[in-house]
Amino acid sequence: ARTILGYLGGLLQGGKAPAGQSLSGPIGVLKTGSEVVATNDIAAVIGFASAISINLAVVNALPLPALDGGQLIFVAAEAVTGRKVDQRKQEALTSFALLFLLIVSFSTAVGDLTSLAK
Q: Cα–chain-centroid distance for residue 87?
């Protein structure tokens, strides 16, 4: 969880990942997972699965409208103001967040493929 938040913070502040950290997509996660499984260490496999699960929960809780954390923001705004968020605004924000997530996903996939080619 700290790695994800540190990574995102580094990107927002300086546009680069913090030293020693990189963002992996599904391809990189599969590569790392296969390396962990190849060790035949059950504790390492359980630790890896736990890390994936915790990181998925943290990412899902981010306040992006396309994720659960973003939907929670809309619910909180509705509770504070006493009225629903305008549907068009909510759809526009969700579309923008989804586009952002697709760009990040594509970028990580390209980065994973690049690192595999090395």
A: 25
- Determine contact, residues 110/22, Cβ cutoff 8 Å: no
Q: With contact defined as beta carbons under 8 Å apart, do 101 and 17 qualify?
A: no
Tokens (6 digits) for 52? 């994936």
Q: Smallest Cα–Cα separation from 3: which of 27, 25, 20, 26?
A: 20
Please, are residues 66 and 97 in contact by the beta-carbon 8 Å criterion? yes
Residue with tokens 């306040």: 63
Query: What single-letter DSSP state applies at residue 39?
Result: T
pTM of the model as a whole = 0.68
Q: Model confidence over 70-105: pLDDT tens digits?
A: 999 999 999 999 999 999 999 999 999 899 888 888
User: What is the C-alpha separation between 101 and 103, in angstroms, rounded?
Assistant: 5
Tell the residue number behind the tokens 């990040």, with chain if given.
104
